[in-house]
Design goal:
The chain is mainly α. It is 88% helix and 0% strand. α1 runs antiparallel to α5, α3 runs parallel beside α5 and α4 packs antiparallel against α5. The two termini are 16 Å apart.
Length: 123
């Protein structure tokens, strides 16, 4: 049972890292496609994409980091993840543009770092 919980948490952490990477890539590609090439704004800037991505990040982050805290008792990964998620939430209210991109990229970087930290604490 204990190994199963670790395996599930490891998968959630890895999913969180991948999701963070996809989010950052989406953010950068959105800026490039809209600003430089002048197209793709409707699809890339749709609020639903950001809301769904944030919902997934919150669900995966709280699950993996919560299980990690329960298992290893260190609050650091959870605290770092919460700061990252807070920046991502703030990005939703910043409106499209550089401010949103900066908040999102910093936020997803912190969330990915929290998942990596959490994985390392599992050993």
């Amino acid at each position: 049972m204990e190994r199963t919980v670790l395996s599930i948490r490891d998968r959630f952490d890895r999913a969180g890292i991948y999701l963070s990477g996809f989010c950052a890539l989406h953010c950068v590609l959105g800026i490039v496609l809209v600003a430089v090439l002048g197209f793709g704004g409707g699809a890339f800037l749709a609020p639903e994409i950001h809301e769904i991505g944030l919902g997934l990040a919150i669900a995966i982050g709280l699950s993996a980091l919560g299980i990690g805290y329960y298992r290893h008792g260190q609050a650091g990964p959870m605290a770092l993840g919460l700061v990252g998620l807070s920046l991502m939430i703030a990005a939703l209210f910043a409106g499209h543009g550089l401010g949103e991109a900066v908040l999102t990229i910093f936020g997803v970087s912190l969330v990915a770092s929290a998942h990596l930290w959490n994985l390392r604490r599992a050993v």
